[in-house]
Write a structure and sequence with these properties.
- About 85% of the residues lie in helices and about 0% in strands.
- It is mainly α.
- The protein folds into 2 domains: about 1-45; about 60-93.
């Protein structure tokens, strides 16, 4: 194989390696667009592009208080379990 053939193969591989992620991105974005169109139509009356829209979006995206409290309790329990697992290792390891 000559140097020219090697260079052609390298260029072809580079084009393939560049195009595959772009094709996947395009397909993903198209599917997201198709899935979002009905949602955007439903949220047309939410007025997120007006002054105060940022706060409105934050309110809509906030988790309910009970879920936040449950998450905090589970995190505290997890931290306690991890600490309990590590303590014997420190004592006897």
């Amino acid at each position: 194989m000559t140097d020219t053939d090697t260079m052609r193969i390298a260029v072809a591989y580079k084009r393939f390696a560049d195009n595959v992620p772009m094709i996947l991105d395009c397909a993903l974005l198209r599917s997201v667009k198709v899935g979002l169109e009905p949602v955007l139509f439903l949220f047309n009356g939410v007025h997120i592009s007006v002054p105060g829209g940022y706060e409105r979006c934050r309110f809509l995206l906030n988790e309910p208080e009970d879920i936040v409290a449950r998450h905090a309790a589970l995190q505290k329990k997890r931290d306690s379990l991890v600490k309990g697992k590590e303590e014997p290792l420190r004592a006897f390891g």
